[in-house]
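Predict structure. Chain length: 435.
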Amino acid sequence: MALQNIGESNRNDAFYRYKMPKMLTKTEGKGNGIKTNIINNVEIAKALGRPPSYTTKYFGCELGAQSKFDEKTGTSLVNGAHTTPKLASLLEVFIKKYVQCYGCGNPETEIIITKTQMVNLKCAACGFISEVDMRDKLTTFILKNPPEAKKGSKDKKAMRRAEKERLKEGEAADEEQRKLKKEAKKKASTNGKDASSSKTSKNHTSDEDISPKHDEIAQEVDDDEDDDDIQWQTDTSREAAEKRMKEQLSAATAELVMLTAREEEEKKVPKGLANGDVKTEKPLEKLVQEMKEHLKKGSPISELKNFISSRSDPPQDVMDALFTALFDGVGKGFAKEVTKKKNYLVAATQEDGSQMHLLNSIESFCGKNGNEEAVKEVALVLKALYDQDIIEEEFVLEWYQKGLTGVDKSSPVWKKVQPFVEWLQSAESESEEED
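Prediction complete.
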């Protein structure tokens, strides 16, 4: 069965994991009794996590035609002759309105009907609640025919197992694309053999240039050995002794002056702040300023990795400075800004432990700085970074557990990221059960 990615925006993503069958239609009947049969509507609806009656009714509402879904036979009929591309375009609109999360775009949502008879979508990934436009005709049908209440996690697991089965069918196409890329790389490597030969000749010349340096080092060693023959003597005359005494007294006086200056500086330190706190605060502000200046230069992102690795500051301070320099003053729209500047974060998370540093910087930026608008979107930020393979599941779970038991366990960040973490944990437990 041919598969395609769910959502128009993900059409060209070869590694997108949410897929559905391509629509198949058939025109039946003649004259006034002509109808369009959506042959695989049940499979499509199952992939979207929606009742097939919803998609059938939506087609009828948008086309102004009568529609009917037979529960026993699974037949979906829409009166009139309608082309497959036309129905497929309507299905994309349905996905955007009634399937995809309005926050992160994830199609793993659940329809919820509120006490005030409003249709909402709850995202299992980021926890965002999307409010559906109640002026749409399909909302009336949904209120009259609400989705069946899920019995528990078993239903979710069954849906994900079915989804993974469909993914396996699409892996063959992905494997073919990878083979083509490997063949292209092999061709490029054969063309680069001539260039490698020129590099080897350069290396020979560089070896010749190194030899004079060895001669210089040998001369320095010889000079040091010559110094061993010199006999050193101390002038014990009265005049020389008086001169050395004066130098020692001046050094002691200077040390006393420096000691009194340090005591005066310590007195100026505000009460409640240790000397270590003052010393660590100024370098961090300076590091943020240096990071901003580096970003303002417009240097390629590839140079950012070299700039970070050249710093002698603690890795966590460097990551905090980079995150502050990139998103200083950002509140509402935090998730969009992170998505725009994701390449900077990719360059900064190449070393071991850098993913945990990034997660700590996110918590510090949102929680410790009291950025309420950023806190609201922190789950969307983690979802975006997870989808882009910038942060991995194991580090997110470890970071979350440390946060709940750490000093800042009362931070509002942990409450906001809880739905995303639970989503990761449920996916992990299902994969273990399948194994």
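Summary: The CA atoms of residues 151 and 383 lie 26 Å apart.
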